[in-house]
Design brief:
The protein is of the alpha/beta class. 30% of the residues lie in helices and 25% in strands. It has a domain of 170 residues: P-loop containing nucleotide triphosphate hydrolases (Rossmann fold, 3-Layer(aba) Sandwich). The structure holds adenosine-5'-diphosphate.
């Protein structure tokens, strides 16, 4: 797969005319198929481009392949066929390159995955460990590293809880620590797997808004899987709809019609889901009538 470094961006509703965007591509997926041991086809011929600074939401029912797609993006799962190409790194399967790619790719999880008996600051500093040798991590981190951790906690509004044990924090605060830990990694990409699934609606809106803001401020490309359609419509620059391991929708939040939601969640005929005048293109997904409008 050729790495061109720039994205070909289509005007919404104009699938044929291709215009060149100045925003750099970060990751390309080209006909990615993932078959797990046992024969489950989790992803089938998925192609997509992710560009710097975009907030992309993955929507789809349970088992549609959202987590597998996220895991492909940071090399935790290797495609059975097809390719994942990463900006700057020609061969993401190589161990050293994979480590570099993971260092710039931060993860945020539904259950936070924090060390609950440690302080908020200690958890945030875990985000810095990828920048040090294993031997170095046995010793206290230098002051400049601690300053980064403090700055990140301040950004998420939790400086006053820096020394608090994480198990004393609310669910929303714990997820703020998760965001601060991701930020401390100084990533180019943040992958978030259902980051608001365990939060009440008010906290969920606050956390997703915060995540979007910090990504925009730092030109971080975010790819976030969600169950909440209304949240996707509120925050996403771009939505990828998955159904049974295939991309059945790729477009802006304003293009996410009820028909398309029906396709995503009920696997109805994709042809019926494409509104008239919408761009249609198979784009390597082998799904008739796929709705596409993407960089
Ligand atoms: P989602 O995140 O949308 O719920 P997943 O990517 O977790 O979807 O799963 C997609 C499909 O792959 C499901 O059928 C799931 O059961 C299967 N799957 C996920 N992980 C594994 C695994 N490690 N081994 C075997 N099957 C898996």
């Amino acid at each position: 797969m050729e790495w061109s470094g720039q994205s070909d961006e289509r005007d919404p509703g104009q699938p044929v005319r291709v215009v060149t965007s100045r925003r750099p591509r970060i990751i390309l997926l080209d006909d990615v198929t993932v078959v797990y041991p046992g024969g489950v086809v989790a992803l089938s011929l998925v192609s997509a481009t992710f560009v710097a600074g975009d907030f992309t939401v993955l929507l789809g029912p349970s088992g549609s392949g959202k987590s597998t797609l996220l895991r492909c993006l940071n090399g935790m799962v290797q495609p059975t066929s097809g390719q994942v190409a990463v900006e700057g790194f020609p061969n993401v399967k190589d161990g050293r390159i994979l480590r570099q790619h993971r260092r710039r790719t931060a993860m945020i999880f539904q259950q936070h995955q924090l060390l609950i008996r440690q302080s908020a600051l200690d958890n945030v500093l875990i985000g810095r460990l990828g920048y040090h040798s294993s031997l170095r991590t046995l010793f206290p981190l230098p002051k400049r590293e601690i300053a980064i951790g403090i700055e990140c906690l301040e950004r998420v509004g939790l400086l006053h809880k820096a020394m608090e044990r994480v198990d004393k924090l609310s669910g929303g605060e714990q997820q703020r620590v998760g965001i601060a830990r991701a930020l401390a990694q100084k990533p180019q990409i943040i992958l978030a797997d259902e980051p608001i699934a365990s939060l009440d609606p008010a906290s969920a809106t606050g956390i997703l808004g915060l995540l979007r803001d910090v990504c925009k401020e730092n030109d971080i490309s975010a790819i976030v899987s969600l169950h909440q359609v209304e949240m996707a419509k509120k925050f996403a620059d771009r939505i990828i709809g998955l159904s049974s391991g295939r991309i059945v929708f790729l477009g802006g939040r304003d293009e996410l019609t009820d028909n398309i939601l029906n396709t995503i969640y009920h696997n109805a005929s994709a042809r019926n889901a494409v509104p008239s005048g919408s761009p249609t293109e198979t784009h390597g997904n082998s799904f008739p009538g796929l709705a596409v409008s993407q960089p």
